[in-house]
Structures are given as structure tokens and as C-alpha cells.
Design goal:
The chain is mainly alpha-helical. The protein has a domain of 211 residues: MetI-like fold, CATH 1.10.3720. 68% of the residues lie in helices and 0% in strands. The chain contains 14 helices and no strands. This is Transmembrane sugar transport protein. Pfam families: BPD_transp_1 (PF00528). It is a multi-pass membrane protein. It comes from Streptomyces lividans 1326.
Length: 342
């Protein structure tokens, strides 16, 4: 008995049955799964440390802000009575002594932050622009400019504290004894001059960071732009205003935000310079929260102030990012409209 098989006609598709051992589709290799999971595995230790060092204390601090946590409940803070929003209302009651002191500290911190960030950016940008062109000794000057940023904070601030001493400090020796600019030696670590002393130290150790960031941003500006502007008759200030500053806008947006957050939260500088009790003129909000928590032993009120500070910084950061993103999109949209019109 003979069997015949029908051959496929031209244009017809033949469907064959696959054997049980034949794979029906591409199978994901185990090595690919390992490669995908490897980055998450490498990030796991950092995520765990971030959780333990930042997130867990932050959650505990938020819980503490709703409790009447004083020195009587330090042994077991979980047994402290629940007060709800009383710590927050007490902190924002500006007619009461606690709220009035917090408001004063907040205003001092705002003024200090604006001046410090502005001066750091101005000095750092000016130094970076001056160091842009190559000349003999530029590398040495760059290294010298970065010394304040490389020094440990405690060593630098303690040195300034000795320099600001009333009787044998270097500042009074130069201003009063050498130059004769003051009638008598000034008190820099107490009174109204403490704000100036704090600002000087903050700018001295903060402007090299701005110098470093702006100097890195200047490397991405083509030199052909300056050459073309010079051929068109543009001066140095016109080149800076028309080429350098617009090109540095993305860098400056990040730089100003980082400097703002660092300066507004700065605790090491006033604590090392003045100690636990900062003068009223230099009472930053970070040192004020420390005094409310660890000097008066009212951790509930101190935690509430910290939460309010966190909310304020989140609000300012969100508004700043929103405004800068819209400002960055506006020139791009205008250029696209002009291109479409053409």
C-alpha cells in the first residue's frame, strides 16, 4: 500500500507540527536575569544604610514631634504622653516667647543664607572666570583657592575663632593695631558683630565649592563663541553677560540650590564658633533647634521645629525647581516658534 503526500502549492503556507522537544519561542537566559538583578544587588547596601541613617531617624523625629517628650521621659520616650499638634502650635505662636524666638531665628537664618549664598556665588564665579584663560601659575592658584574647601570644618572654624579673639586675635590686631580702622578692639564672637564673623567664616569656606563647580561648567563653553564675540567688538563684560552667564545657567541653578540647602542647615559653623549658646544676632535656626532640644530638654518642641524646617525647605525646593524648569523651557519654546514661523 502506497501513501502519497500532497506537496505544497506555490503561494500556500505549510504548517508543520513541532516536536515536543523543540522550543516554541526565545527563552530568557539565566545570565540576563543575573545581569539585570546585579545593579539592584550592588545598591542594596547603600539603600540599607540610607534607611538606617536617614529615613528611620526622620520617622522617629516626626513621631516625637507629636509627643510631650521632656527630660522625664528620656529613659523610655515611647511612654511620653501624646500631645497632637500642641508642639507645632506653640512653635508658630509668634506672640508667645517660644514662637517669637523661633521667628527671630528664622529671619536671621534667611538673611544669613541670602548673603552667604550670594557672596559665595559671586566670589566663586569671579575667580573661575579669572582662572579660565591659561597663564603661568594657574594650577597653583587653583590649588590654593581650594584649600578652604579641603580643610576639615572643625579645624577651619576653630582657627577663625582664635583669629576673632578680642585681646590677642589676628583680626583686631590688623584692623586696630596695624591699620587703625577701629577706635578700639571689637568683640566679634558676641554682640552684633557675631553675625559678621559668622558670615565671613561661612563665605570663606563656601566660595571654593562655587569656584570648583563654575570652573567645571566653563570647560563646556566653546572658545569659538568668545573669539567670534571679540571679532564683533564685544568687550569682556559683554562676553560675560551675553555668553558666560547664559551658558552657565544650568550649572548655576543646581549650585544655588545646593548652597542654599547647605547654608540654611549649617550647624557645625555656628556651634564650633560660638558654642552651645549662640549670640542673638547669629542665632541660626539649626543652633536654635539644638538649644530647644538638648539645652532645655524639650525634645518634642525641638522635633516639631525640625519638622517645620523640613517642610519649609521642601516647599522652597519645589518652588525653585518649578520656576527654574519653566524659565529653562521658555527660551526653547520661543526658539521653536521662531523656527516654525520661518
Amino acid at each position: 500500500m502506497t501513501t502519497t503526500t500532497a506537496s505544497a502549492q506555490p503561494g500556500e503556507r505549510t504548517v508543520g507540527k513541532s516536536s515536543p522537544g523543540t522550543a516554541r519561542g526565545p527563552r530568557r537566559r539565566p545570565g540576563r536575569i543575573r545581569r539585570i538583578g546585579l545593579p539592584y544587588l550592588l545598591l542594596l547596601p547603600a539603600l540599607l544604610l540610607e534607611l538606617l541613617v536617614h529615613l528611620v531617624p526622620m520617622v522617629i523625629g516626626i513621631v516625637m514631634s507629636f509627643k510631650e517628650l521632656t527630660q522625664f521621659y528620656i529613659r523610655d520616650w515611647t511612654t511620653a504622653p501624646w500631645t497632637g499638634l500642641d508642639n507645632f502650635t506653640m512653635s508658630v505662636d509668634f506672640d508667645a516667647p517660644v514662637g517669637e524666638a523661633l521667628l527671630h531665628s528664622f529671619l536671621v537664618t534667611c538673611a544669613f543664607t541670602i548673603l552667604s549664598v550670594g557672596l559665595c556665588w559671586l566670589i566663586g564665579t569671579a575667580a573661575a572666570i579669572c582662572m579660565q584663560d591659561a597663564f603661568r601659575g594657574r594650577g597653583l592658584l587653583r590649588a590654593i583657592f581650594l584649600v578652604p574647601y579641603a580643610l576639615p570644618v572643625y579645624a577651619a572654624v576653630i582657627t577663625w575663632a582664635f583669629m576673632f579673639q578680642h585681646d590677642n586675635g589676628l583680626v583686631n590686631h590688623v584692623l586696630h593695631d596695624q591699620l587703625g580702622l577701629t577706635d578700639k578692639p571689637s568683640f566679634w564672637l558676641i554682640g552684633d558683630n557675631s553675625f559678621v564673623a559668622l558670615l565671613v567664616v561661612s563665605v570663606w569656606k563656601g566660595w571654593p565649592f562655587a569656584f570648583l563647580i563654575v570652573m567645571a561648567g566653563l570647560q563646556n563653553i566653546p572658545k569659538e563663541l568668545y573669539e567670534a564675540a571679540a571679532l564683533d567688538g564685544a568687550g569682556v563684560w559683554q562676553q560675560i553677560r551675553r555668553i558666560t552667564l547664559p551658558s552657565l545657567r544650568p550649572v548655576n541653578q543646581v549650585l544655588v540650590l545646593v548652597l542654599f540647602l547647605w547654608t540654611f542647615n549649617d550647624f557645625n559653623t555656628p556651634f564650633v564658633l560660638f558654642g552651645k549658646a549662640a549670640p542673638e544676632a547669629a542665632d541660626l535656626i539649626s543652633i536654635h533647634i539644638y538649644q530647644s532640644s538638648f539645652v532645655t530638654w524639650n525634645f518634642g518642641a525641638g522635633s516639631a521645629m525640625s519638622v517645620l524646617l523640613l517642610l519649609f525647605l521642601l516647599l522652597v525646593t519645589g518652588v525653585y525647581l518649578f520656576v527654574t524648569s519653566r524659565t529653562a523651557r521658555a527660551p526653547r519654546n520661543s526658539r521653536e516658534r521662531k523656527t516654525a514661523d520661518v
